[in-house]
Amino acid sequence: VRTPICPCGATANIGARIINRHWPTLVLALLAAVAVSPLAWVVWQSLGHYGALLDDHAYGRWWVNSVFVASTQTVIAVLLASLGGFAVAKYRFRGRRVILAIVLSVLLLPYQVLLPGGYDLVRRLGLLDTFWAVLAPGSASVFGLVLFARAMRSVPDDLLAAGRIDGCSEVRLWWSIAMPLVRPMTAAFALLTFAGSWNAFLWPQVVLQDDGRYTLPIGLASLSLLPGSDLGVLMAGTVLGVLPVAALFFALQNDFVAGLTAGATKG
Amino acid sequence: VCICVHLRFHPLPPPLLSFATEQQRRVSLAAVKRAAPYLFLAPFLAVFATFHLYPLGRSLALSLCATPSPRRTAFVGLANYAYLVRDITFWLAVGNTAAYVVAFLAVQLPLSLGLAMALNDRRVAGRNALRFAFFSTSLAGSVFAAIIFARLVDPRHGPVRVAWLASPLLARAAVLIAWLWLSVGFGMVYLLAALQAVDPALRDAAAVDGAGAASRFRHVTLPAIRPVLSFLLLAGCVSGFQSFELQYVLIGGPGPQLAGLTVVGYLYTVGFGQGNLGYASAVGWALVAITMVAAAPQWRLGRDATA
Question: What ipTM describes this predicted complex?
Answer without folding.
Answer: 0.88
